Amino acid sequence: MAGAHHERRIGEHFGRFFSFDEDSESDIKNLYVALFCFQVLITILKNGEKQRSLATLVEGNLGHIEEALIEDYIEDNDNLALLHDQIHECDIILSQIGSILSGFQVHIGSISSEIRSLQVKSLDISVKLKNRKLVETKLAGFVEEIIAPPGLVDILVNGEINDGYARSLEILSKKLKFAQVDPLINASKALKDIKQELERLRQKALSKVSSHIIEFFFAMRKPGTNIQILQQNLLQKHRYLVLFLKEHGSETYGDLCASYVDTMNKVLSTYFRVYVEALEGLKLDIGGSSDLSGYGSSIIDIITRGRELLRDHGFMFSLGERANILKEINQPGLVPHISQVNSRKYPYEVIFRSLQKLLMDTASSEYLFIEAFFGEESLFYQIFEGPFAVIDRHLDHTLPNCHDAIRLMLMICITRKHQLVMSNRQLPCLESYFNKAVMYLWPRFKVVFDMYLQSLYQCDAKTLWIDGTHPHHIVRCYVEFTASLVQLNAECGDGQLDMNLERLRSAIDVLLVRLAQNFTTPKLQHLFVLNNYDMAISILKEAGDEAKNLQRYFEEKLESNMMAFVDDLLMEHFSDLLRFVRSRVSEDLLSYNERSNIADIEPVVKNFAMKWRSALELMHNEVVTSCSNLLSGMAILKAAMAQLLNDYNRLSECVKKIPGGSALNRHLVSITSISYEIRKYSRAL
Fold first, then answer.
1. Could you tell me where the DSSP H helices lie in 425-497?
2. What are the angstrom distances between the C-alpha of 378 and each of 370, 381, 383, 429?
3. Most-buried pick from 221, 563, 637, 669 (CB within 10 A)?
4. Residue 288: helix, strand or coil by DSSP?
5. Hey, which of 95-104, 308-317, 386-395, 500-509 has the most confident mean pLDDT?
């Protein structure tokens, strides 16, 4: 009971220390510790007697130990006193060292302040040094830019104009530009002191450079001077001199440009005027007003005066070798004095090409020089006002006297091709000239073209008529004229000629009809038209693919007239046969327009049997002698024979179907015999 009571008291005594929250993990750990301690206490309490004896023993041992320790302390008392004195001395020394370190700390602090002060002073000095160097650099540059060294002054005033002079001008230009860039610099007193000297140098340089270049301009005016060599070999070397004048002497530069324009305008105008006059002496004077005098105002009058005159004027209608000029568009132009020595004459289109070739080459060279030397494109047009005026006056004088449409069309083509040449050179300087030239040429061409047409419509067909069915020479001329225009239109036409070609074709048709009316029989009329259409087709074939449409038109006309001529030819030799079968027998042999009897058909059969061989021979001979083209004659004979076989076959079938027709079988000619005879003539052809 006593033990349980003692445990309860201990539990009550320690319970307040081991109270815990059941929801806390730490309280659970405290519970385990408390239980362990509690178990230990219980064990001690259960062995209380043994513990008391042990405590008594321990207390006795502690007393002996304490006494031993006191004795040891007493024995070491001197040593402890000495240690105490030494510790005290060390404290004094450490105090002194602390004082010294404090002094050092104060001294180091003052040194740090001095260092910071020196750093500030060093930074200030560095900034001042940098600013002074910057000022020195700018001042040195300023002084260098505004000061004119004695050597530079001497070269600009007394030196010879060469590459060194150009370099000196470049230095002077920089100095003059330097004073103009910044208003502050321009307002500086130092610059004001030197500015007057720079201005005098500028004026002297402008005067000297201008005089030097103008000397070259005057040299260009001398006869025989090769201007292009002078420009390329001498003037081009002084391009910077002109640039200096342009930048620092606008008035002097303007005077220089005016002097160059005046010089080149006069030189080139004279050059072109002399060249045009020389070319006039090389002109083959055919197709002009003077050449037509005495033959009336009509183009047709030229070819009604005889074959000799037509031979001289045939080129007015036929292109021929004149087209070669379009292949020689870039060849050198005529050299008048060489041609005069050879006494050669040229059609005007050759002269026109030479004139424009000279203009292109001269303009190209001058335009490139002006662009490189002056950089002013407008100067080119001022210079070439004179040459353009010379050419305009020449065309104004020449074109009204030109009555050759082929020539005018060639001139248009030449102008278009020259325009393309300049486009390939990427030089636009002559574009306005070419457009103006074309505007000159087209109206004149249309006037002359209308003269050609009016000549056809107004001519007297009876006067022009020649007793014969072969192609008419006037028709040939106009077909060749048409073929020539078709070729040129394909070469460089722009659509303006298409309608005129239609008008020309209609005029040829009208002329053929009027000429054909002079013949007394339709057969001869058809034969005449047929031969002329055949001739037209042959000429158009030579013109190439460009004339295909017009060729097809004439082929259709040829076909229709061929069938009409074949009908007329058969009607002349086999009229009774044709009238009978066409009036009484259908083409398909299935029906008859009138009921025939043997009395009606017998004369037709006997007449054919009696004369068919001789009639075939007459037809063959007539076609061979009347057709101008053997191939066309063969085609006509072939068509005539085929038609004859067809009509006679219809007659034979009719004989078989009428009562008593068998009595005429012995008079019928077999189809085989007729075919054999036809093949004989075909082999002969």
1. 431-458, 461-464, 473-492
2. 9, 6, 9, 10
3. 637
4. strand
5. 386-395
